[in-house]
Amino acid sequence: MRKIYFGKSGIDGHGFFAKKEIKKGEFVFMMKGTMHKLTTREEIMSNPNMIGIEKDIWLDPSLISMPINHSCDPNTGIKGKVTFVALRDIKKDEEITFDYSISEDSEWEMPCNCGAKNCRKVVRGIRYLPKETYKKYLPYIPKYFQSVYNRCHKI
User: Fold this and answer.
1) Which residue of 17, 48, 64, 84 sits 20 to 30 Å from the alpha carbon of 34, by its own alpha carbon?
2) Would you kindly state where each structural domain of the chain is located, as residue ranges?
3) Are strands 69-70 and 95-98 parallel, antiparallel or unpaired?
């Protein structure tokens, strides 16, 4: 957490921000928490703060990892399963965000208030990402979610 700090967010009340400039491709932070196996729709839908790691495996973020907010124009992606890296250069004091869709393959959805110019207004699972957006995030989408997208889009 040496590169980020907790602060007041215009997206959702609070979030993480860059302590200093972070270059594209650079490590930002590692998501920590407890792993859970959730297999039923009811289990998944009743745990909206969990982050998908792979098929049926979900991470319940620790309080120290929770306030990373969604953006339809994020500045981080996920390398491996829990390592967040910069998708582009991040300015000092810029809020750290990621697109929740890259770690989601359930029927869950939420309204979006990220404020990005390209806001999709609704956040849904990976299969609903526009193709251009999906390509922009690569390779920083967990492998399982890449396979879900590719299968749904016959890539």
Assistant:
1) 17
2) 4-152
3) parallel
